[in-house]
Amino acid sequence: MGAKLCEDVLGKPNWRFVPPRLRAGQGHLKNYDPSNAPKVEDLPHIKKAANDYYDQYWKVFWQRLYDKHELPSPHTRSLFNGKDLTGWKVDVPHLDKHPDDKAPFVARDGMLVSLGSPGGHLVHNEVNQNYRLEVEYRFVGQPGNCGVLVHSSTPRALYKMFPKSIEVQMYHKNAGDFWCIVENITVPNMVKRRGPEKNWGITEGKARRILNLTDGSEKNPGDWNRMVIECLDDQIKVWVNGDLVNYGFKCTARKGKIAIQAEGSEVEFRKLDLTPINALTD
Predict the structure, then answer these.
(1) Domain assignment of residue 84, yes or no
(2) Containing H/E element for 48?
(3) Predicted confidence band of residue 36 (pLDDT cuts 50, 70, 90)
(4) Would you say 156 and 258 are in contact if contact means Cβ atoms under 8 Å apart?
């Protein structure tokens, strides 16, 4: 992977690195004795400075190359182990009174699947902040509703069902909408995209939906979609299949859990990858 990225940047020159110890006694190194060479110490403050420099100047650049070649970042990890729901908690109100009924979330054929009903959420155990979440999903059968929730905290805070969070909508033909669930976020052109300001709110009966920026970004039903969500400080940025579909700021939450909805339609997830970030992608 590293060689492929270097080749993309540097091309295929004839230069090859040969360490000095293998060239000792030759050319300008004729008097070089590796046994007398200074020893390099791995000083903590130097290592920290190097990491800070990398984070500030190179991390975003390398991420672009990983994206271009569809390769995972070395810092990326999957939230789903491909086998079972370890690390996740099912929160489905219907199961409180009917514990023997089937939960709407399963692991199947290496994928995480939301069966759509009964309604509820699959909540990851970790609290995360400043990250990039890559989601690959498709509707099984008739496309409909689902969503990814970020900055999730208090369970069942809305309609005794939805956790306090910001929802990134996956509803067919509306992927990328924001829904404010007892949290709030600001976007450009708020009145145009959310309606009259007097109706705005974050609780039951209020105008909680913020329209996305595009039409036609989703694939045909049954095809795989790629949604990327970046959360950094009080900002959230969303792409669907490479199109920037939403950007919000002044979010009232900066960290929280990630959750998947069961909201009427069966959806397969083949990727749920999380990568730490310190800058939003342009």
Answers:
(1) yes
(2) helix 44-57
(3) confident
(4) no
